[in-house]
Amino acid sequence: MRAQGATARGTYWLIHLALAALVGLLFLGAHADGSYWWSDAPRHALNGVFVKDLVAAAPWSDPSRYAYDYYAQYPALTILFYPPLFYAISAPFYALFGVSEGTALLVVALHYVAFAWGAWALFRCWLPAWPAAAAAAMLALLPEIAFWGRQVMLELPSLAFFIWSAALFTRYRHTGYQRPLLLYGAAALLLLAMYTKLTAGFLALAFAGTLLYERRAEALKDRHVWLAALVACIGLIPLLVLTVKFGQANIQSASGINDSLVSRRSLAGWLWYLRQFPGQLGWAMLAAGAAGLLAAAVPALRRRSPDGMAAPNQGDSVFWLLWLVAGYLFFSAIDLKEARHSVFILPPVVLAAALLLMRLPQPRWRGAALAALTAAVALQTVLMRPVAYVGGYAEAARLVAEKAPKDSSVLFSGYRDGSFVFNMRTHEERRDLTVVRADKMLLNVAVRRELGVKEHDLSEADILSQINALNVSYLVVQPGFWNDLAVMQRFERVLAAGQFEVVARIPTPNNVRAYEKELVIYRNKAPSGRRAGPRQLDLPIINRSINAGN
Fold first, then answer.
1. Rounded to whole angstroms, how far apart are CA atoms 63 and 78?
2. In this structure, are residues 242 and 250 in contact, taking their beta carbons and an 8 Å threshold?
3. Domain extent listing, the chain
4. Inter-residue contact 384 to 143 (CB < 8 Å)
5. CA dist list (Å): 138 to 141, 351, 366, 439, 455
6. Residue 311: CB partners within 8 Å, gap ≥ 6?
7. Contact call for residues 116 and 140 (beta carbons, < 8 A)
8. Which residues does 64 contact at the CB level (< 8 Å), separation at least 6?
9. For the chain, how big is the Rg over CA atoms in Å?
């Protein structure tokens, strides 16, 4: 028995190492050089830097003033607009390893490993050790998960807590509800998933529905069920307060936006995520998963299990069905639709595919089928969903950091302001520089242009006066940025005047359809030399204006 136990432990260690190595191989395709593509990614990275800087500065007498001044210097900060857990976890890593996209990706990678291990722990409830490892690998390799999971985004960190919550909840059920600590652990981990990305909370519906299905009225009499629910609700209160106070744009995205891809009031809106499955899963996984879900509906097939495999009971089927259906309806009801939002509902499809292949009559067929499906998923991810990048911004920040006078400002005009701002913050030696966004100076944009933009009534003389008042020494400009707007055209004419000279043109290499081809660096030949003072900044994302800046 001891020898068997030692062998099992050795197998488990080997599986954990193999899954961690798989994640490491995936991250060889990530870009850690500051070449952010998606606009949210550098903001998530910067929010963690802010937490690190906040703790180091310790401005506890007036933390709000510190945050406002920080935003005035690095105007890509979105702290409190999103749940704060990922940023709190990132902060000590920045303190240890320095501020860089590589550090931010390290934090994401650690969550990715935890996610793969959690998937194995969950699938192990029904599958033998190595088939469960294959299923966990397939889940980690899914095109949609691997694409977003190798960027500084919140989906994968939230999924790490989310999948472990499901694993503990399943263990709680499979031990006959005799270990309530597993239930408390599942509730706590789901709460942490929500403190990373709020939409993970839909899984509570699957928890509740499964408990009611299996235990009926007995579940309502269980004090541990009520206590776990109460503790979770109390824990949610701060997050809900932050969302109501600072996350109005998120609430609007759920309730109704002007630029939604499809209306949730239409059939197309309710079928939208169904149409994303081929791109999220790959055709091979989609076919196997769909067949597995159909097979699960046949009692004779559901009860047929090879040696070492626990046949899913009716409660298991209800749990996975509720997970898939409740999640699908939840995300479909949200007006803002993006394929990455629904990655939380993909694990049931992968399990269904693995269970189907494990019902093949010959053991060698099962292993070969699992290996082939894993290879097909990996191939589609590697070939069809490489991590997107747009370069040039780190080089622009480096050039400006080398040349800008002390205590001056750098004006940025372009689509990827977050990328430039974060790359400026990586230069610890130039914490004296302030970044000014042209869109904040010339426009009032409601989160993104599609939701509304108002032009400030500024003449060319007014624009030049503001540039001088802000002590702008260098300008980093994306040519043609929003130049269909009159005030942006006036801004371009100011740049063409004699006070500014082009000192560099930096290409922006990319592997996506990018808005820009290059960044043009201008030098102000007559900066004021006076450090900019406080100024008014509009923050439409939280519906307020602030007076900030040193």
1. 15
2. no
3. 2-30+80-384, 393-548
4. yes
5. 5, 10, 15, 43, 49
6. 126, 302, 303, 304, 305
7. yes
8. none
9. 26
Sheet containing 409-413: which strands, arranged edge to edge?
Answer: 434-437, 409-413, 472-477, 518-524, 500-507
CA nearest 45: which of 448, 422, 447, 424?
422
Residue reference for tokens 């961690």: 20
> 455-507: per-residue pLDDT in tens?
999 999 999 999 999 999 999 999 999 999 999 999 999 999 889 999 999 99
Burial class for 455, CB neighbours closer than 10 Å (0-12, 13-18, 19+): middle
Contacts for 518 with CB less than 8 Å, ≥ 6 apart: 392, 479, 505, 506, 507, 508
The two three-digit tokens of residue 359, written as one number: 């019902």
Q: Residue 297 — φ and ψ, nearest 5°?
A: -80, -10
Total count of residues recorded for the chain:
550
DSSP per-residue letters across 435-501: EEEHHHHHEEESSSGGG-EEE----HHHHHHHHHHTTEEEEEE-TTTTTTSHHHHHHHHHHTSTTEE
pLDDT digits (tens, 9 = 90+) for 44-70: 999 999 999 999 999 999 998 999 999
- Amino acid letter at 359? R
